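Kindly inspect this today.
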Amino acid sequence: MLFTSDLVASYAPDVKRLRRFEKIFLKSGESKKVNFSISAKDLTFTNNENQKVVEPGDFQVTIGNLRANFALK
């Protein structure tokens, strides 16, 4: 599961939003590589005026216990 968080926004959307997931089946001891892609559209939220917007700023992506921050300009 891939979650995004908008760290600074004019309107506070959900703290953590599910953006992608892939259901996989693993045997005991098996590992598998899963790739996710996101776009600026995936970072939109609904503002106070019921409009879908994406704002530049700092974001965080979380997959399992891994986290990475990035800036959208």
Summary: The chain is about 0% helix and 35% strand. The chain has one domain: 2-72. The mean pLDDT is 86.
